[in-house]
């Protein structure tokens, strides 16, 4: 059958036909593939850290404000008490003054001493006020001055009247008989006049006294409030003296890790590649010991993640001989082939030296990065010197940290996904940093201290071999410390 | 993590590769592509009228494969499953751009008459693959689909009629005309090369 022959011809030739698609096809497909979800674990860590931080912060705010509120209420209550008390005092003093004045009034008519006594009395009163405020004092002084002037006036009047009376008496004695009636009349007049002036003085006296009492009242409440503040300060001071010198609290920091030299710690082929420092987290606990008002010794423990990325690497299977150095590759079977990365320059060198067939590239798409991720347990020992000390504090900090390596991963990623290729083989298990930084603090209450500390930590011996990579950590450490009683 | 597995088992079992692709692992997808791109591109070329369309169909096919790989339950050939996805991709595009009926072929009797073609002579002759592919591609769209489905992928006229939403008779006559067309091209080729 002819038909069958044609069908057979095409079946034989075309049924299993294989044709290589153009090279950019996978790239186009990969771009359209849905992006894989980002690393959930990392997200959870961030979420957990954020929640913890939020709880701590809100807790601190809540307690510090709650504390302040109760203090204010106490203060108001005290003032109220004082007011009541001083009102009573006022009434008492007015009563006392009135009583005195009644007695005085009688004396005044016959003796100039009385006036002086009164002035003395007023002076005593105002000195009793124990005036601290200058303004208040000057007001009191003015009042006293005017009081004195008035007093003197009335005293002079009284003296004049008495002189007059005495003179009259002398005349009377001469012309007693004749002038008896007149004498009694004059006497009465004099008494009346004296009485009058006494009355005037009394009313003035009362008014002045009221004023003085008012002033005294104001001064007293002022003094009382001063005393209250002073006494609180005293309490605080005595508390400070009694308080423990230890404080403790959590601290977290975004930390930036990079090298002050431009090279690569993993392989010199990446020395000239573009690199990015990584921003990660440091979390831990700080313990501080207050040596004296200015000096503090601090230590603690932090878990620090650091890492950096080398951009635009090529991923491929490779003969280990051609693969980058300083890596312990994961699960290499008999050292036959490893997954590794190459810089473009290195790749062209390999191709030029006819070793190209020993490398098989895997297309990953996007900016494929070689990332190194390290976790250290950090134990810092630092001293802090306070420069400014009030509610806000400013200090400088210096010290050293011991770093103990716990995790060490080298992986490739293009943000959609990541694959571990091994670990760095040239890292010291224990290394040290020299630390320097600044501290900005705020005391929410006498026991709760907030701090923000930009710190620069330079790592001294991160690598076992000499690589052109001098790492440092820059962190913005925030924390809250509680003073232990 | 997956790369490590690849290192330890370079010739990864297909089922592991599929399992990894089901987790949308990009490297596994890349490897699956590498393994089957040539076969599927061949398939797409046969069903398409030109290289660029074939390339588009290939991309579309792989995206569908990765999206629907969960639906492959391990029964039957995985390659066959992927090829069917490629066919469906082409058919979808065909339905989308459905042309006006080519001719009034429905009226033509699909006669299973023999063609005037000395196929015996050429069957083993060196007809280049690229030539055979090109004359299939040059077929009018429906002829090409029917020819491919019936001759190369073994579908029945009944199935083809359903797939293309045409009458069974139409499928038969399309196949006849496709063969006729191809035989003509082969004869022309023979004449020019003689």
Q: Would you kindly provide a written description of the structure presented here, covering whatever features stand out?
A:
The complex is a heterodimer of chains A (485) and B (194). Chain A is an alpha+beta fold. Chain A has seven helices and 13 strands. Chain A has helices at 2-14, 25-32, 40-108, 112-128, 134-174, 176-242, 344-352; strands at residues 246-259, 275-290, 295-310, 314-318, 327-329, 338-342, 359-362, 369-389, 392-413, 418-424, 430-443, 448-459, 471-483. In chain A, the strands form two sheets. In chain A, strands 1-2-3-8-9-11-12-13 form an eight-stranded antiparallel barrel. A three-stranded antiparallel beta sheet of chain A has the order 6-4-7. In chain A, helix 3 runs antiparallel to helix 6, helix 4 packs antiparallel against helix 5 (134-174) and helix 5 (134-174) runs antiparallel to helix 6. The longest helix of chain A is centred in the first third of the chain and has 69 residues, at 40-108. The radius of gyration of chain A is 47 Å and the shape is elongated. Chain B has 194 residues and is an all-alpha fold. Chain B has two domains: 2-97, RNA polymerase sigma factor, region 2, helix turn helix motif (Rna Polymerase Sigma Factor, Chain: A, Orthogonal Bundle); 109-193, Winged helix-like DNA-binding domain superfamily/Winged helix DNA-binding domain (Arc Repressor Mutant, subunit A), CATH 1.10.10.10. Chain B is 70% helix and 0% strand. Chain B has ten helices and no strands. Chain B has helices spanning 2-8, 14-22, 26-47, 51-68, 78-96, 119-123, 129-138, 141-152, 157-164, 168-193. In chain B, helix 4 crosses helix 5 (78-96) and helix 8 (141-152) crosses helix 10 (168-193). The longest helix of chain B has 26 residues, at 168-193. Chain B is globular. Chains A and B meet through helix 1, helix 2 and strand 10 of A and helix 1, helix 3, helix 4, helix 6 and helix 7 of B.
What portion of the residues of chain B fall into strands of 2 or more residues? Answer: under 5%
Helices and strands of chain A, in order, run as: HHHHHHEEEEEEHEEEEEEE
Overall form of chain B:
globular
**Number of distinct beta strands of chain A:** 13
Overall average pLDDT of chain B: 81
End-to-end gap of chain B: 59 Å
Q: What is the oligomeric state here?
A: heterodimer
């Amino acid at each position: 059958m002819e038909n069958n022959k044609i069908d057979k011809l095409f079946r034989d030739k075309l049924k299993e036909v294989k044709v290589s698609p153009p090279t950019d096809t996978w790239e186009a497909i990969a771009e359209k593939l849905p992006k894989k979800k980002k690393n959930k674990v990392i997200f959870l860590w961030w979420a957990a850290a954020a929640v913890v931080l939020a709880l701590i912060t809100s807790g601190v705010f809540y307690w510090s404000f709650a504390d302040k509120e109760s203090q204010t209420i106490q203060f108001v209550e005290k003032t109220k008490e004082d007011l009541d008390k001083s009102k009573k005092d006022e009434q008492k003093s007015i009563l006392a003054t009135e009583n005195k004045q009644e007695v005085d009034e009688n004396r005044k008519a016959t003796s100039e001493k009385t006036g002086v006594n009164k002035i003395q009395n007023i002076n005593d009163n105002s000195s009793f006020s124990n005036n601290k405020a200058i303004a208040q004092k000057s007001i009191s002084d003015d009042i006293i001055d005017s009081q004195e002037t008035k007093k003197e006036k009335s005293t002079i009047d009284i003296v004049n009247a008495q002189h007059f009376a005495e003179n009259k008496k002398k005349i009377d004695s001469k012309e007693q008989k004749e002038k008896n009636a007149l004498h009694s009349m004059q006497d009465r007049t004099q008494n009346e006049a004296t009485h009058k002036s006494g009355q005037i003085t009394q009313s003035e006296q009362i008014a002045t006294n009221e004023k003085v009492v008012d002033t005294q009242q104001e001064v007293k409440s002022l003094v009382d409030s001063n005393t209250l503040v002073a006494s609180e300060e005293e309490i605080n001071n005595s508390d400070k003296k009694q308080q423990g010198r230890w404080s403790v609290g959590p601290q977290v920091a975004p930390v930036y890790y990079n090298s002050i030299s431009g090279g690569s710690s993993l392989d010199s082929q990446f020395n000239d590649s573009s690199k990015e420092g990584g921003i990660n987290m440091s979390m831990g606990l700080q313990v501080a010991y207050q040596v004296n008002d200015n000096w503090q010794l601090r230590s603690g423990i932090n878990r620090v993640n650091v890492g950096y990325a080398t951009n635009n690497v090529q991923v491929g299977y490779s003969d280990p001989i051609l693969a980058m150095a300083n890596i312990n590759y994961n699960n290499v079977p008999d050292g036959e082939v490893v997954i590794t990365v190459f810089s473009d320059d290195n790749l062209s060198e390999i191709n030029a030296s006819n070793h190209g067939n020993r490398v098989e590239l895997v297309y990953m798409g996007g900016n494929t990065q070689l990332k190194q991720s390290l976790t250290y347990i950090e134990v810092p020992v630092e001293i802090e010197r306070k420069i400014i000390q009030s509610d806000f504090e400013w200090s400088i900090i210096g010290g050293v940290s011991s770093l103990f390596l716990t995790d060490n991963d080298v992986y490739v990623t293009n943000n959609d996904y990541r694959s571990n290729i091994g670990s760095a083989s040239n890292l010291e298990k224990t290394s040290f940093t020299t630390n320097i930084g600044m501290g900005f603090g705020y005391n929410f209450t006498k026991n709760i201290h907030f701090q923000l500390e930009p710190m620069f930590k330079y790592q001294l011996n991160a690598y076992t071999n000499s690589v052109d990579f001098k790492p440092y950590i820059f962190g913005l450490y925030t924390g809250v410390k509680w003073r232990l009683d | 993590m997956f790369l490590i597995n690849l290192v330890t088992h370079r010739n990864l079992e297909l089922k592991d590769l599929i399992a990894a692709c089901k987790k949308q692992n990009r490297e596994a997808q890349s490897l699956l592509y590498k393994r089957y791109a040539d076969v599927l591109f061949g398939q797409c070329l046969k069903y398409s009228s030109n290289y660029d369309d074939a390339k588009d169909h290939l991309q579309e096919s792989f995206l569908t494969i990765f999206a629907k790989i969960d639906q492959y339950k391990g029964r039957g050939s995985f390659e066959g499953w992927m090829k069917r996805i490629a066919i469906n991709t082409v058919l979808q595009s065909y339905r989308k751009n459905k042309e006006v009926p080519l001719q009034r072929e429905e009226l033509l009797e699909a006669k299973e008459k023999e063609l005037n073609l000395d196929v015996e002579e050429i069957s083993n002759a060196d007809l280049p693959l690229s030539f055979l592919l090109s004359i299939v591609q040059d077929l009018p769209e429906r002829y090409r689909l029917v020819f491919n489905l019936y001759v190369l992928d073994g579908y029945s006229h009944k199935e083809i009629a359903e797939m293309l939403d045409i009458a069974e008779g139409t499928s038969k006559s399309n196949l006849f005309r496709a063969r006729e067309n191809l035989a003509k091209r082969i004869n022309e080729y023979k004449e020019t090369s003689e």
